[in-house]
Amino acid sequence: MQSQPVFNHRWLPWLLLLPQLAITLVFFLWPAAQAVWQSFLMEDAFGLSTEFVWFENFSVLLQDEIYHRSFATTFIFSIGVTALSMGGALLLAVMADQVIRGARVYRTLLVWPYAVAPAVAGVLWMFMFNPSIGILSYLLEQLGYDWNHFLNGDQAMLLVIIAAAWKQISYNFLFFLAGLQAIPRSLIEAAALDGAGPMKRFWTILFPLLSPTSFFLLVINVVYAFFDTFGIIHAVTQGGPGGSTSILVYKVFDDGFNGLDLGSSAAQSVILMAIVGALTVVQFRYIERKVQY
Amino acid sequence: MIENRPLLNLISHLILCLGVLVVAFPIWIAFVASTHAPEALNSGTVPLWPGDRFVLNYAMALGLETGQKTLNVNLISMLGNSLIMALGITIGKLLISMLAAYAIVFFRFRFRMLSFWLIFITLMLPVEVRIMPTFEVVADLGLLNSYSGLILPLIASATATFLFRQFFLTVPHELIEAARMDGAGPIRFFIDILLPLSRTNLAALFVIMFIYGWNQYLWPLLITTDEHYYTVVMSIQRMLAVGDAEVAWHLVMPSTLMAMLPPVLVVILMQRLFIKGLVETEK
After folding, report:
1. pLDDT for residue B274
2. Which residues pair with A87 in a beta bridge?
């Protein structure tokens, strides 16, 4: 890693590493190995005996309509959250980058939702969309639109997307703003002198130069939508109505703890681990290129 | 500024103000709802302007005042538990990851890279993904319904270790040479030189980890069945799950706002550190 002078000691480095290694082994690697092992087992209906079934849990899963739907749901959810929060954040960041003064004030006013727990964000939006007392559902009703996310799956999906995107806007905003401010002013000035208007400058200079930031945020947002939004789903819709918001992470929990289908839940865990692994690799390849933002 | 276009500047400000309003709107509505009597909330639409029950509602939510309808949870103890969990996770993470990074960067020993990768691989295993088996391990260790159970499984953090490693690698060779020349051993070097140098990094990570710890939801939900260990974020859902009865929104909203206040305050008051931490943990 580097060739600087170092200390030589026989047991001290192990002592220093011990706490982290112990916790990693006990709470991370051992459970992950358990998940893999369990995904090859199947319990009978009464939980009395278990049988080693190779890949049967996986093949059952992959043929399961409900699991397919959960995948589709997760995709729609992630695309919605990513598009909404990145689009909104990019618009605000571009505006904040070009105002003459006040960019810092706007930053302060926009960063705090990052600190709101997903479950709390969900409750705040659920309250506003409450079919009987919510302010937004009332407004929609005035416009002749009937809102009830307890019954309508599409509306429930929209609600969780909005709540999840709301919380993530501040994160995207910070990174877009930093990315914009890192673009050399001289480039933009040169374009302005050549007669390019603000719109043209955005599409031909700012937007292409932001692509490393955008790509990085894309990965981060997908990871967020896949794994960190459990609280929103659990607090707001419980995966309902009729499984219409049951994203993959929620389904692992639901099948494991409520359905008590351990083999299937473990197999789903393994599939999810593979997805996180793939996303982490993508993220790291990006970092290795050392793009500035 | 590139060019002076007053109209463009005005439009930018308008869009930003609109954005700020949209982002703040849910909080405003929640705050308004937290200051009204239950009748005002359940009779049609939520009002848009604060009512006069601010003190009463918050006192009732905190259990300082009892009314005909109070929450069957103890908010003060839950806020305390959240604080213990958040601080436990934060301090634990900083401590173990700093020590581990120190060993990896400043010592040469067998299996050094293996240890690094073992720690690093945990990035790929968020709690949400391996819930069932982790729950079983914690149950087997008898850590259900305990602070250790709330804290320990969440404190292994590859991100913090990685960040400290990156930072330690930038420490100039001359410092280590000089320290060794003066006869300082590894422990002395750590305490007298490395620790003071890492102050800003520690503070920035502290902010990020505190938010992470405070906002934990799934884990406390799973491993606590004893009310004494409930944390505030996980309990919001419990306040809403009242079956067919009407939700006591005038008490849920004060609780919700109090649950989000500590991390939000940390972000706003320590904004510079927060942004530093955020940018560096993702690098």
Report:
1. 84
2. none
CA–centroid distance for A120 within its chain: 16
Question: Rounded to an integer, what distance in angstroms lies between the CA atom of residue A283 and that of residue B282?
Answer: 10
Tell me the C-alpha distance between A151 and A154, whole Å.
9
Q: Examine the pLDDT at B283 and tell me if it is beyond 60.
A: no
Q: From the CA atom positions of chain A, what is the Rg in Å?
A: 24
Q: Mind listing the domains of chain A with CATH numbers?
A: 65-288 (1.10.3720.10)
Q: Is the ipTM here above 0.90?
A: no
Q: Which residue of B has its CA nearest to A29?
A: B122
Q: How far apart are CA A74 and CA A222, in angstroms?
A: 10
Q: Tens digit of pLDDT for each residue in A120-156?
A: 999 999 888 888 888 888 888 888 888 888 888 888 9
Return the pLDDT at A158: 92
Radius of gyration of the CA atoms of chain B, in A: 24
* Closest C-alpha among B96, B162, B177 to residue A6: B177
Query: Would you call B107 helix, strand, or coil by DSSP?
Result: strand
List Cα–Cα distances, B20 to A102, A103, B23, in angstroms: 13, 12, 5
Which residues in chain A have Cβ-Cβ distances shorter than 8 Å to B155?
23
User: What span, in angstroms and rounded, lies between the C-alpha atoms of A225 and A205?
Assistant: 29
Helix (H) or strand (E) holding A52: strand A50-52
Q: Mind telling me how many Å the CA of A256 is from chain B's nearest CA?
A: 7
**Residue B54 φ then ψ, to 5°:** -50, -60
Residue B90 has pLDDT above 90, yes or no: yes
Residue B11's CB is within 10 A of a number of other CB atoms, namely: 15
Give the pLDDT confidence of B123-176 residue by residue, as tens digits.
777 777 778 888 888 888 888 888 888 898 888 778 888 888 888 888 888 888
The answer to whether the Cβ–Cβ distance between A135 and B45 falls below 8 Å is: yes
- A52 bridge partner residues: A41
List, as ranges, residues 90-149 from A with C-beta within 8 Å of B: 91-92, 95-96, 98-100, 102, 106-121, 123-125, 127-128, 133-135, 138
Reported residue count of chain B is: 283
Place of tokens 């993904």: B129
Report yes or no: B238 and B231 within 8 Å, Cβ to Cβ.
no
Distance CA(B282)–CA(A114), nearest Å, equals 15
